[in-house]
Amino acid sequence: MAQVTPEVLWAQRSSSTDPEKNFIYLTISVPDVPKENLKLDLKATTLTFHGHSETLKRTYHLDLSFYGEIDPENSKIHHTARNVEMKLRKKDLKEEYWPRLLKDAAKVQFLKTDFDKWVDEDEQNEAPEDDFSQFGGGMGGMPGMGGMGGMGGGDFGGIDFSKLGAGPGGDAGSDDEEEEDDEDEMPALEGEEEVKAEAAKADK
Length: 204
Description:
Blueprint lengths: L2 E2 L2 E7 L9 E7 L8 E5 L3 E8 L4 E8 L10 E4 L3 E7 L21 E3 L23 H18 L1 H48 L1
Parallel strand pairs: 1-6, 2-9
Antiparallel strand pairs: 2-3, 3-8, 4-5, 5-6, 7-8
């Protein structure tokens, strides 16, 4: 049976001080591969995956050589009915992102950016971490979101002013809606008059 290279999605975070925020998100799309039918070998610079789906009659195989080293001991793997999700701890604490996932710079068709989890390097501190909830990321996102709410609370005056400023515009908007309503009603009135006229003709 021919082997298929599964689609791989990836994203990353980086930190020079916090190992918990210095990792790679990796998702291998292998639907209907039960746990007992897969073999995953994760090392510092390589990952080998082999899995078989009996329902799809498909065998998946994947060999990856990472751009940098990871820490397999502190990496986490989560298996679902559709894929294998991993949170791979980068070994070196660095503020900079890895320029790519793989050691080889050549583009490969099966590897894609996971835009649901990706954030730009300079925006990652603002990104909520609830996008990987099964690994406890959701808890990390809560305080940050609460903090943002607190900031918003402090600026209530500004928000109110903007609402007041938008007030006349809002009224104008409602006037437009009323005019549109009038226009909608006009054809109906004309139609009724035509019906009446035709009815009058019929009576004659």
